[in-house]
Write a structure and sequence with these properties.
The complex is a heterodimer of chains A (434) and B (214).
Chain A: H1 3-13, H2 15-50, E1 55-59, H3 63-72, E2 81-82, H4 83-86, E3 97-109, E4 112-117, H5 120-124, E5 129-132, E6 140-143, H6 145-151, E7 158-163, E8 172-184, E9 194-198, H7 199-205, H8 221-224, H9 230-233, H10 235-238, H11 246-250, E10 256-257, E11 259-264, H12 270-282, E12 285-288, H13 290-333, H14 335-343, H15 348-389, H16 400-426, H17 429-433
Parallel strand pairs in A: 4-9, 6-8
Antiparallel strand pairs in A: 1-11, 1-12, 2-10, 3-4, 3-7, 3-11, 5-8, 6-9, 7-8
Helix pairs in contact in A: 1-15, 2-13, 2-15, 2-16, 3-13, 13-15, 13-16, 15-16
Chain B: E1 3-13, E2 19-21, E3 25-28, E4 32-36, H1 43-51, E5 58-63, E6 66-67, H2 73-83, E7 84-87, H3 99-109, H4 116-125, H5 141-153, E8 159-163, H6 171-188, E9 191-196, E10 208-210
Parallel strand pairs in B: 4-9, 4-10, 7-8, 8-9
Antiparallel strand pairs in B: 1-2, 1-3, 1-5, 5-6
């Protein structure tokens, strides 16, 4: 028997007395820990998906929408841009732009977006093939790891796409089949959830001139989309976009793409800093800076998480108060036992440490329950959030900050126990016993 | 050095200002002694002074050759744990622990080496070994008293102090509890001091110290 064991027994002996304190504490810890896990992963994913892209060019509209659509693939496109307008930005001798990657959106397969692009798109996310080969002629696709896992698509499989960004059989393009030729390694970024192909594929699936129809509102295509003669009618340009290279793409001046992802040569050059404004004022394109828009978004979301955080701290404070009251009451109830411990030779210090240990135990038990709750909660929420955010969240990660939370919990336990411990230690034995 | 307890011109002043003076007394090692007196003459105070739970304002309390009124608070706690076992009229226990753990607690707090076998032997001598793993709140009043005797003795103190151990008992139980106490004290070779107003014990203990109102 020692003080640690005795403190533990005192806690578990009458668990109901302390249940409320522990539940409150677990709730506070759970909420804070959940936020830690959530924010950490959200930030990590946002950063992974920034992929060092400095600028996104697309049709006029909401800059945030442009970013969310073309970098995070969670919003709809703002519209399309003509290749002849986009062409100058692909000039390899451009003084400001180091690299530019075109994107064409418009279709999905089981909610996974089909993205028409060029091979250098893979470099942005440092992605590489796990098996198979890169897409070649139109209709050949390379799929991200998560697409492969969740749809069961394998190399050699074919599938039909659905128009737009939600899985809807009524909107299926049933005249052309995609063929999987490669699967990418998992990167942890949004590319895991994309189906990649060459830009011409998107054009081929849709009617000519409507490279990436966006909303139902601009689907004037329906009348023109005569699927039966689609292949024949477009036979003329099948030979056109054969190899899918950027140079080839740029020859189709009358076609459309959705956006361009741009990397600067130097982020800090005056020209680079001025470029977004120049584009927005002088062209019918829109330029948006991912870092700026995402910080703005995180600030907005941050207001929400700050609110939850404040509630969590309030709960933590109330639970500290509740621990204090529980221990104080327990100390009063047990004044005879504490006096007897003194009679048996226990020093004031021992009594003090005993009550302090009880506070620490309460806090650690609360922390442990809260910690488990937050991880389980994260894991459960992850399943729902994956669809909404295109991110795979997990409850199975451990952060260093969680240990800090444990340290803070122990501190709260000590502080809550301090007054009961001092008053228990200072009690005069003979006053209690006589 | 055969004296266990000595009072030398001891007096104690209560917070209210009332002062009690105690007669000089000497209790030898291994001896059994009764401290009697009317209510209010300071019997409990006398016991608390012997146990070092209170400090005398004047005079010396000497236990096993140590002037305990000169000890610091923590030294006194330690000294008491090693030398003195106390049995109170009301028997309180650490409610989260079972009987044997309560008994062994006095070894731990007294800074004495853990000796579970000895604790169990004491319980057996007191007819309580079958309750060793029971919670203390499941015990009857008489059982509680036996366990508190075992607890007072588990750290092998050389002095056992008992405060009104029999006042709530009928005649036959009074004799039995005294015998139990006396037997255990003799078993350890300890001095036994019983502080009481219970006159039934007078016939059983020849060495009596009577406290009188000043």
């Amino acid at each position: 028997m020692n003080l640690i064991k005795l403190a533990y027994k005192n806690i578990v002996d009458k668990p109901l007395n302390l249940l409320l304190s522990i539940i409150l504490f677990a709730l506070g810890v759970g909420l804070i820990n959940f936020l830690l896990l959530f924010n950490h992963q959200l930030k990590e994913k946002f950063e992974a998906n920034l992929a060092e892209i400095d600028l996104v060019l697309g049709a006029k509209g909401s800059p945030l929408q442009l970013i969310l659509c073309n970098m995070y693939h969670i919003d709809n496109p703002t519209g399309n841009i003509a290749i002849k307008d986009a062409k100058p930005f692909f000039n390899p001798k451009h003084p400001v732009i180091a690299s530019a990657v075109p994107l064409s959106l418009g279709d999905n397969y089981k909610s996974y977006r089909i993205v028409g692009t060029v091979p250098s798109f893979l470099d942005l996310y440092e992605a590489s093939l796990e098996e198979g080969k890169l897409w070649g002629p139109p209709m050949e696709v390379v799929i991200g790891k998560m697409v492969a896992e969740n749809t069961g698509l394998k190399i050699g499989d074919t599938f039909l796409s659905s128009h737009g960004f939600t899985d809807d059989e009524d909107l299926a393009h049933d005249h052309v089949k995609f063929k999987v030729v490669g699967i990418l390694k998992s990167t942890g970024s949004v590319i895991d959830q994309l189906i990649l192909t060459q830009t011409a594929t998107i054009w081929q699936v849709h009617d000519h001139g409507e490279a990436a129809p966006v909303e139902e509102t601009d689907s004037t295509e329906s009348s023109e989309e005569d699927h039966s003669d689609h292949d024949h009618a477009e036979g003329e340009h099948q030979h056109d976009h054969g190899n899918g290279s950027l140079e080839d793409l740029l020859t189709h001046e009358d076609e459309f793409i959705t956006s361009i992802l741009i990397k600067y040569r130097s982020k800090t050059s005056i020209q680079a800093l001025n470029m977004p404004r120049m584009i927005n004022e002088n062209t019918n394109l829109q330029a948006a800076s991912p870092a700026y828009e995402i910080n703005k978004l995180i600030d907005l979301v941050g207001v929400g998480t700050d609110g939850v955080k404040a509630i969590a701290y309030l709960i933590a404070f109330v639970s500290a108060l509740s621990i204090f009251i529980s221990l104080y009451r327990a100390m009063k109830e047990r004044k005879y036992e504490l006096a007897l411990m003194r009679v048996m030779g226990g020093s004031r210090t021992k009594i003090f440490v005993l009550i302090l240990l009880e506070g620490i135990f309460l806090a650690v038990i609360g922390w442990a329950i809260g910690n488990i709750l937050s991880h389980v909660g994260m894991e459960v929420m992850a399943k729902y959030m994956q669809a909404d955010f295109r991110y795979s969240f997990t409850g199975k990660i451990w952060l260093q900050d969680e240990l800090w939370l444990l340290a803070a919990s122990i501190l709260i336990g000590i502080i809550s126990a301090l007054i009961p411990a001092i008053s228990a230690a200072r009690k005069d034995v003979n006053e209690v016993l006589s | 050095m055969s004296e266990a307890i000595r009072f030398d011109k001891v007096s104690y002043r209560y917070k209210g200002g009332q002062q009690l003076s105690f007669p000089d007394l000497t209790i030898s090692k291994g001896e059994t002694c009764l401290v009697i007196g009317e209510s209010g003459v300071g019997k409990t105070t006398c016991l608390h002074l012997m146990a070092g739970l209170m400090k005398s304002d004047a005079g010396d309390v000497v236990i096993n050759g140590t002037r305990i009124n000169g000890l610091s608070q923590s030294a006194m706690d330690h000294f008491r744990g090693q030398n003195i076992g106390v049995i109170f009229q009301q028997n309180h226990f650490i409610s989260s622990l079972n009987v044997i753990d309560n008994v062994l607690m006095s070894q731990y707090l007294g800074g004495v080496k853990r000796d579970e076998a000895f604790g169990l032997e004491l319980l057996k001598r007191l007819g309580m070994s079958h309750k060793a793993t029971k919670k203390t709140n499941a015990l009857s009043q008489g059982e509680r008293q036996r366990v508190s005797i075992a607890r007072a003795l588990a750290a092998r103190p050389s002095i056992i102090l008992a405060d009104e151990p029999t006042s709530a008992l009928d005649d036959s139980n009074t004799t039995e509890v005294f015998r139990l106490l006396k037997d255990q004290a003799d078993f350890l070779g300890s001095s036994l001091v019983i502080v009481t107003h219970d006159t039934r014990l007078k016939d059983l203990i020849p060495h009596q110290i009577e406290l009188k109102k000043a």
